[in-house]
Fold this protein.
Amino acid sequence: MRVEPFSLSLTRPLSTANGPIEAREGFLVHVEHAGETAVGEATPLPGWTESLEECRAALEAVADPVSALDEMGDHPAARHAVEMAVAGCEARSNGESLAAWLGEDAPAASVPVNATVGDDTPAQTAAAAREAVEAGFPAVKIKVGVGEQSRDRERLAAVRDACPAVELRADANEAWDRETAADVVEWAADLDLAYLEQPLSAADLSGHAALRGAGVGIALDESLAAHGLDAVLAADAADTVVLKPMTLGGPVAARTVARRAHEAGVDTVVTTTIDGAYARAAAVHLAASLPSVPACGLGTGALLATDLLDPDPVPVAEGAVAVPTHPGVC
Ligand SMILES: O=C(O)CCC(=O)c1ccccc1C(=O)O
Ligand SMILES: [Mg+2]
């Protein structure tokens, strides 16, 4: 298995409550399996996955890609690369798209996406949201928790003013304590916020459970990556779970999580860690393979100044991505 490093820069840093994301580095792997060849992508994001160096070591230790999958559980980004490449080979060998290979039923033809808006002034945040709505996005996700709560309230109110009908989401990336989060939920319900993502620290599952039922959905992202679905379900902590295949060990592993979430009555949204084009395409296939597809966080290609494929195999048009139908991933 050949391992090839890459480095991608963002058009501008994405400002989040956990610090800015400025660049994405990772590895492409080239796998032969089932008489086919396919590419896999590992784009680790420390804090969410293993480090770049741990990822490199795990990939360089792979002798047989298929059997290696059983031993890569604590290297989710490395596992993602191998898993998506093996799945891509199998899909291609069956003459199916990855979405068709993953799912039981025919995949969705397109996946709606949310625009992702970083921290900025109220006026800039509202302008970015309005631009997204004008471009056809059905939903916008605003990063919050970087500054004061009062500033976030102004920002989200400005967005709601500028975009009265959009599905509005906010992502706090663990910024708040329980008291602050409860205050936010109270005023955010009046702005018809569809969900608030990860207001509290990843470990505070009971705190998230207590925020539910107050008119704003609670979505868990860091908690799912750190503690797994069983813990989230046992604590009754989420209305929605955010599935990032790069943190969950690949699209097949992420699909298992999605199915179990749906069985428990929890919604799923597929997104990326701002991955390159290969992993983004795999995530689009995963979303399309699920029985219901709300707007997903798959418009992240626009955040990259450089990418792994040109043209983009999964471009956003009118707020949605057309799902590739040819055999394999992209
Ligand atoms: O979900 C989206 O709209 C984009 C992806 C995103 O916000 C993100 C990107 C990299 C790392 C963490 C996150 C996050 O959802 O917290
Ligand atoms: Mg998030």
About this structure: The chain has a mean pLDDT of 97. The CA atoms of residues 113 and 295 lie 4 Å apart.
